[in-house]
Design goal:
The chain has nine helices and nine strands. The model has no long low-confidence stretch (mean pLDDT 95). Strands 1, 2, 3, 4, 5, 6, 7, 8 and 9 form a nine-stranded parallel beta sheet that branches. It is α/β, with parallel strands linked by helices. Bound molecules: pyridoxal-5'-phosphate (PLP). The site of pyridoxal-5'-phosphate has 13 residues, from strand 9 and helix 9.
Length: 222
């Protein structure tokens, strides 16, 4: 039996030991049935993350209104409508074009959508995200788009056991944050990085949002 509450408390205490700032722990509930999310909700968890737009749309209808939803997956333009205005924060915006499309939809709904820019912080494997070398310029461009509130940066470390590569990837995002904050008027509120296997390294590199799936819910079975 997986003990969701115990797992969550365990993660929480590690976070408290490692970090003195306020850290948001997002419980990544992708693929998992609603019952798991309800159990986690009963443990006091209010931040949940999903990565598929249709699954997100279907799940949120069946769950309490006070959940803060995080969208963390690749978002295609035809599925923006399922997510904008419903997710508290979209972590995975990886192009100027997508940011504009989100803004257009948010404008129609008369709201401002909070987003993060997803950055590719390592060269080992190609993942989603904007190239590190272009990220600063694109961040500054997106910052000017009207119906979105750009609040920070997100990354995924490469899939490797090499702790050095993982740390370097997170460190790159932290450096980008610092570079951006040298620009007048820019404040990077959130650094979303770290998952079950690497969140401690992420916290050491300044993460204030971590995204934990297996560490809370156990292994995912398809
Ligand atoms: C699945 C996923 C996570 C959580 O991964 P775990 O290894 O289960 O903690 C975090 N972030 C993103 C973007 C994911 O897709």
């Amino acid at each position: 039996m997986i003990n969701i509450c115990e797992n969550y408390e365990g993660i929480k205490s590690v976070v408290l030991e490692r970090s003195n700032s306020k850290v948001i722990i997002v419980a990544v509930s992708k693929i998992l049935p609603i019952e798991f999310i309800k159990k986690a909700y009963d443990c006091g968890i209010r931040d949940f993350g999903e990565n598929r737009a249709q699954e997100f749309r279907d799940k949120i209808k069946m769950l309490p209104r006070d959940i803060r939803w995080h969208f963390i997956g690749n978002l295609q333009s035809n599925k923006i409508k399922y997510v904008v205005g419903k997710a508290w924060l979209i972590h995975s915006v990886d192009s100027l074009k997508l940011a504009k499309q989100i803004s257009d939809f948010a404008f129609k709904m008369n709201l401002k959508q909070k987003i993060l820019l997803e950055v590719k912080t390592s060269y080992e494997m190609s993942k989603h995200g904007i190239d590190l070398s272009k990220a600063k310029d694109i961040y500054l461009e997106i910052k000017n788009i009207p119906n979105i509130e750009l609040c920070g940066l997100m990354t995924m470390a490469p899939f490797t056991n090499d702790v050095k590569i993982i740390r370097e990837s997170f460190h790159n995002l932290k450096k980008l944050k610092e570079e951006l904050e040298e620009v007048k008027g820019i404040k990077i509120e959130y650094l979303s990085m770290g998952m079950t296997d690497d969140f401690i390294i992420a916290l050491e590199e300044g993460a204030n949002i971590i995204r934990i799936g297996r560490g809370i819910f156990g292994e995912r079975r398809k």
